[in-house]
Amino acid sequence: MDNKLKTILKKALNMSHEQRAFIAGRLIDSLDEKADMNIEVAWQHEIQKRIASADKGEASFMSWEKVKKRLRGKRIDTD
After folding, report:
1. Taking the model in full, what pTM does it have?
2. 28 and 42: one domain?
3. Cα separation of 21 and 67, whole Å?
């Protein structure tokens, strides 16, 4: 890794969570030069459907801590 890249990375890692997330998103987007608009539209519809479900009280939610435990295969209480 060259010095310029090391400097950029060091500066980025010292930024806030929100700033790092923004930069990460933009970098990922820049890798996908041929985004399929049909997929983008489908994701937007799915997002709207999930938001509507949550707004109507039809969705169930779980804390991030429980999600991490579940992903690690640990037993969790579903309270």
Report:
1. 0.42
2. no
3. 20
